Amino acid sequence: MKISQNTVVQLHYKLSDENGLLESSAQSEPLLYLHGHQNMLPAIEAALTDKTIGDTLDLVLTPGDAYGERRDDAIQSVMVKHLQGAKKWKAGMTAVVETEQGPRQVTIVKIGMFKAEVDTNHPLAGKTLTFNFEVLDVRAASDEEIAHGHAHGVGGHHHH
C-alpha cells in the first residue's frame, strides 16, 4: 500500500540542522500519523506521498518550507504566570503559552519577577532542516481516525 490521503503511516525519523542531530525516533517509538490531515509539515506530506513500506527518504527543507524565517519583531512581554512547562524559568528555556491561535512554543529571552520577555519564533525558525525518514508501515485509516483527524494506537495520539 502506498502513502496517500487517509492512510496511517508509521515511520522512524531523524531531524538534523547544520549543527547536527536534533531529534531521532530511533531510541523510542516510531512516529505514527494520519496522512493528508495537516499533522505534518505540508512539504513532508508531499514528499512522503506514494512512498511505501521499506522506503527511505532524505528531505532537506529550507526555512520557507519548514518553520519560517526568524522574525526580529517576535519578542513579546508576557506575565510569568502564563508560562507553562516548568516551575523555575531561565533564559533559553522553551515555554508554552496559550494564545488565541492555540498553544505556542516560545523561548525565554529575559525573565523577571512578574514579566518575561519571550521570543515567539518557532525554536526551529530560520533553520534549514534535514529529515531522514524510514517508512515502517502503511495502512488504511479507520473511520474513527479519519473523523478525529489523527492516528490512534502505538505512537499515535492518546485521548485523555
TrEMBL record:
SUPFAM superfamilies, alphabetized: FKBP-like
GO CC annotation, single: cytoplasm
GO-annotated molecular function: peptidyl-prolyl cis-trans isomerase activity
Residues covered by the PPIase FKBP-type domain: 6-70
Enzymatic class: isomerase
Catalytic activities: [protein]-peptidylproline (omega=180) = [protein]-peptidylproline (omega=0)
EC number in record: 5.2.1.8
Chief localization: cytoplasm
GO biological process: protein refolding
Subcellular location per the Swiss-Prot or TrEMBL entry: Cytoplasm
One Pfam family here: FKBP_C
Keywords annotated in UniProt: Chaperone, Cytoplasm, Isomerase, Rotamase
Family of the protein in this entry: Belongs to the FKBP-type PPIase family.
PANTHER family: FKBP-TYPE PEPTIDYL-PROLYL CIS-TRANS ISOMERASE SLYD (PTHR47861:SF3)
Known role: Also involved in hydrogenase metallocenter assembly, probably by participating in the nickel insertion step. This function in hydrogenase biosynthesis requires chaperone activity and the presence of the metal-binding domain, but not PPIase activity.
Name of the featured protein: Peptidyl-prolyl cis-trans isomerase
Organism: Rheinheimera riviphila
